[in-house]
């Protein structure tokens, strides 16, 4: 075979290979670009109620197995320029509780404060103050969850009249008020009742702690909510 013929064939093969590669890459590039543009063009919620609605709609997508946010590499560069979360989630540190997935939100959409038992101490309050005053969040959702080990440990500590070792007593003491609040009613499921009450108490604390959060709540700039995440179903029930 002549040298010119060989070169021609190789050139055609290169063009064909390049065309195939471009055709395969195009859908992925278009999808990444579309996600990047949609994130950059997403407007902040008009109100705390709209912020909560955005969370609940995202949870519905997650529970149904139809999330929008499946490519977390999209909009990576734009996120490096700053953050503008629209809501804060106070959640448990439980490894099965992942707020970004539960509410189908991309990185940068929600500000997460996590501690075992999803309670608020001074550090958590300060974090929420920063989220409200600097980042402009409009909603706070304190999220308990089913089968919470921290709440269960608190119940066992109260019933056994014995504190756990190490630094765990500080955790138990923070959750203890919620357990005491519901024990007198003898609920059929003490763990579930205490979990819900713990979320309610800390949501109220988020809205009433001054000076920053209480002022924002009084002016209607933020609202605080409570909910419980069902690990088995993926659904969040607002309280």
Draw up the topology in text:
Layout: H1 3-41, H2 48-64, H3 76-79, E1 87-91, H4 99-102, E2 110-114, H5 122-135, E3 139-145, H6 149-160, H7 168-183, H8 190-208, H9 212-218, E4 223-229, E5 236-238
Parallel strand pairs: 1-2, 1-3, 3-4
Antiparallel strand pairs: 4-5
Helix pairs in contact: 6-7, 7-8
Please explain how this structure is put together:
The chain is globular and about 50 Å long. With 239 residues, it is an alpha/beta fold. 55% of the residues lie in helices and 11% in strands. The chain has 2 domains: 1-41; 44-68 and 75-238, Beta-carbonic Anhydrase, Chain A, CATH 3.40.1050.10. Strand 4 and strand 5 form a beta hairpin. It has helices spanning 3-41, 48-64, 76-79, 99-102, 122-135, 149-160, 168-183, 190-208, 212-218; strands spanning 87-91, 110-114, 139-145, 223-229, 236-238. The model is unreliable at 3-41 (pLDDT under 50). The chain has 9 helices and 5 strands; from the N terminus they run αααβαβαβααααββ. Strands 2-1-3-4-5 form a 5-stranded mixed sheet, with helices on both faces.
